[in-house]
Amino acid sequence: MEIDLSRISESAPLPPYRAVLAVDMEKFSASSARNQQSIGRLIPQVLEEAFTCADMLPVWKDARFPRHSGDGYVMGAEPEHLPYLISPFLEELQKALERAQPYLAVLDRNLRMRLRASIDVGPLPDTGDGSGIDAMGEAMISTHRLLDSEPVRRELENSDPDTTLLATIISRRVYEDVVLGGFSSIRASRWRPVQAAVPAKDFQSEGYLFVPTPSHGADTARSQEEPGQDGGDRSQPRSKPAPTSQGAPGNSVGHNDHGQVVQAGTLHGGVTFGGVSDGA
Description:
Structural class: alpha+beta
Radius of gyration: 21 Å
Largest sheet: 7 strands, mixed
Shape: globular
CATH class: Alpha Beta
Distance between the termini: 40 Å
Strand order of the largest sheet: 2-3-1-4-5-7-6
CATH topology: Alpha-Beta Plaits
Number of helices: 8
């Protein structure tokens, strides 16, 4: 392979700006190998269901450089879709995860699909022909570093696993342009600033956390309510008890924003979710 170095010192065109959405499942590796296969098939179906119910199916169908990693998914979109990737998509993704729970219970009654999500934006190569350079750039790296950062991981660890199924972190650029810019329906007061660090990757950046359905985990609530064994001051006000866990909704029939019927399917080897089959 020959590399043309004749124009290496010249300016180059800026790649097009792309919004980047990435999701990753909590504790995927703790699942059995057989369950991992079913989960892997279910993740894109859950995403498609959320895009459909958010009236954003064309964004899913026209996704740029989509990649499925088994326990996660990453895709690009035109930057004008950023406000809608935040709302209504994130709320609909939480609901889609709730609807998926009965299928997971068939595999293992203790199995939960809880996702971390991250969103960023920036210039990324996008040839549209599957080139190896597509999506290679800082915005893609930052999206994955935010996804792996400690604050968004702790958000799931410290919440009720039957209630909070999604925790999202966005970059400062997205927060300023979309949230502070007034383009998102989710107000700034619902976002929490955090220092997103991944020490092993020498990454540290400002991020903003949002949880569509927040809760406290049982252990967290207990530690806040019970006084220390060293005779702590019992007169201090106790924190509020953890919200009651929301049971996973049963199979049901409803209509999405397109007026289409969405019906729970059955899990028999392959996965059928929200009326969409994986073809298995």
